[in-house]
Structures are given as C-alpha cells and as structure tokens.
Specification:
255 residues, alpha/beta, Rossmann fold, 9% strand, globular, binds zinc ion
C-alpha cells in the first residue's frame, strides 16, 4: 500500500488494524511563515513532514509508526512584517498540540513523537508537554530536528545558523523543497546586543534572549548565507537527522 503510514489516508478500520501492530504516532509541527525570497512559506512544515515520512519509510519493516497530519501553522508573530506569514498565538498552538495528543491517546496510541520544524514553536510545545504531565497517560516527546544534528551542522555550514540560512536552505533543497535558486541572498543579520544576543543558534556563551521582530535584524527575511547552500550539505545533515531519529524511535518503542 502506498502512503501506508499516513493516518490521513487510512480508513477507520485500517487505523484499528494498525493499532494492533504499533502504538507510535509521529506528529510533524511546522509553520506558515516567510523564509526569505528563495524558500516558500511552508518550509518548516515541509521539512518536519519530510523527516516524519522518510523515517517512517526507513523504519517500516522493523517498527511500524503512523504519521499524523502536519500542524501547518506555528508561532510566528516576529515574522508578521513579511507577507504570507500566518501565525497562531502561543496558547492556541499549545492547545492544538494537547487536543491532537489527547485524541491519539483516546484511540490507543501510547507513544507520540512531535517532530518540530520551527524554532519559534519550542515554548508552545514545551508548555503543551508540561500541561500533559501526569494528565495524559502516554509517553509524549518532542524533537526539534536540528538539535539531532547540531554537531554536524556546526562542521558543514556557514554561520550564522538562524533563518532561511545555509543550513535550512541546504536541508530543504535536499528534501526536494521548491528552492528559487537565483533568488537566494546572504544577510548575516543585525546583532541585537553584540556578544550576548546574536541571531545565531550556534553562538557560543554568554547568551541572553530578547523579544524581537525579524524586520529589525533582516531586510530580506534571511539571516544567514543561503547562497552557500548545497544539496550535498543538506544530504549530510538530513542523513544524520534520519539515522538518529530512527535510533530514537526504536528506543522509544522498546521503552
Ligand atoms: Zn524555517
């Protein structure tokens, strides 16, 4: 059966059947937000979905998992100065996550893994996870995909790693995202407090955080060097993410 792991393509009796073989669900969490002039606004949702589908495919013979429809919107108010961004409030996103997990648990899924594609979602996700502690009787995890490969990312990409940058463009490109190759731009981004609040996920300590708008640190919407992106680098990063996701899911299955 094609798309055999996609919940959206199953009938209810098929879901009942697959629940006899697995209780693991993957929930991709994305955003609909500007990604500069070269990447579409679905980029974070696209990458999270691709990782979920590709790891489900790799695992199928060893361990069946079900991929749930992607949460296509995320928490993106800081991108609203750029056209096409659609944001949820943080509490709405957290509530959607709780409602999805609660529904899945109701049907018998006992291990749920969120695969998050957007840095701005992390607070809402951790709030959702906290609110389910000791309430929803299931093991519920979150993976921000880039944290599964931050070592290799540090080795292969040009910093800063922040938004629609070398890392994100390379990975998207490798995963067959629409990339407007000749619209790629380089913009390292304005430092907010030099040495303390830098737009770079790999910046060394000391680090402080701040409420900000993307427009303040970038004109194009890009923070990073997207012209440095290559499919090869994307493959190096994505292969490591998939390998470690597979290992993680197998451990979750055995836990
Ligand atoms: Zn993104």
């Amino acid at each position: 059966m094609e798309n055999k792991y996609l919940l959206a393509k199953m009938t209810w009796p098929e879901v009942e059947e697959i629940l006899k073989e697995t209780d693991i669900a993957l929930v991709p969490v994305g955003s609909t937000e500007q990604h500069g002039p070269a990447l579409p606004v679905d980029n974070d949702a696209y990458i999270a979905t691709e990782f979920a589908i590709r790891v489900a495919e790799r695992l199928w013979e060893k361990q069946k998992v079900v991929v749930v429809p992607t949460i296509e919107y995320g928490y993106s108010p800081h991108h609203m100065q750029f056209k096409g961004t659609v944001t949820l409030s943080e509490s709405t996103l957290a509530n959607i996550i709780v409602d999805i997990c609660t529904s899945l648990v109701h049907h018998g899924f006992k291990r749920i893994i969120l695969i998050n594609g957007h840095g701005g979602n992390t607070t809402a996700i951790s709030n959702a996870l906290h609110s389910m502690n000791n309430v929803v009787l299931a093991k519920i995890f979150n993976v921000d995909w880039w944290t599964f490969a931050s070592d290799i990312i540090g080795e292969v990409v040009t910093r800063p790693v922040f938004h629609a940058c070398d890392m994100e463009t390379s990975v998207a490109w490798h995963l067959d995202q629409r990339v407007l190759e000749d619209r790629r731009v380089d913009e390292p981004g304005r430092s907010i407090i030099p040495g303390f609040v830098e737009p770079d996920m790999l910046a060394p300590p000391p680090k402080a955080s701040v409420a900000f708008m993307m427009k303040y640190i970038t004109e194009s919407g890009v923070v990073g060097y997207s012209t440095k992106a290559t499919k090869e680098k994307g493959k190096q990063i994505a292969d490591v993410v998939l390998e470690r996701l597979e290992e993680f899911i197998l451990k979750v299955a055995g836990a």
